[in-house]
Amino acid sequence: MADKYEWFDKVLTLSGTHLPSIKSDVNALIDEFDLKMGGDKPQKYLSYTVSGNLMKKAAYKAAGIGGLTTLPMTIPIIGTIGTVLAGSLVDLALVLRIQIELCFAISAAYGVELGEDELKAITLALLGFSGSSQAFKATAASVLRTAVDEIAKSYINRGVEVATVEFAERLIPRLLKKYYRFIPFIGVPLGASFNLVSTMTIGNHARKYFSVWDNDNIQISWKDDN
To answer: CA-CA distance, 162 to 121, in Å (whole number)?
Structure first.
């Protein structure tokens, strides 16, 4: 594995180890909302409400990170190119972990049961898809689901570890090109807003994807037949 992207694999692996506690927290949140709403709301309503709550919390957390990691760059002399690059890497690592665990949490909110590798592959596909031009065309959940399933299946067939490196090599350099971070004072609100919007976008796509998983009794053959 390429050393420079080893940290991203660690982020993905660490998030996977937290999956049981993520599921437990989400189930507790569903029970809490169910109690508040009188215990008579359909499961789909609870899942939608809880996933919306998860998205807002994750987006605000990501926004806070974006503001904090750009703050040193607004200070004369301290805000050097090296500081910018270091801040960008810290920002990206923290925000990607938030977004990965948000996808895991939304899958739990909709009661989706998948193996860890399959869930990781789908999450990688959602992260990459949400930043693509194709995402703007995928207004229907079925279109998004088809696109994400196709990408995720290719990740599984190549191996999640290999796919993680390929994903990092393709996506991370693009995410690091946040040139506004070089602009004093403007970088703070832009860093916060970028992280907030990107996290909400990924959350919306994850909710759209996982919300229809159960409806159609989806079964994916993750391995190629030949």
So the answer is: 11
Q: Any idea where the domains of the chain sit in the sequence?
A: 3-211
Q: What is the pLDDT of residues 203-216, one digit of tens each?
A: 999 999 998 765 55
Q: Is the pTM of this model over 0.85?
A: no
Q: Which amino acid is at 6?
A: E
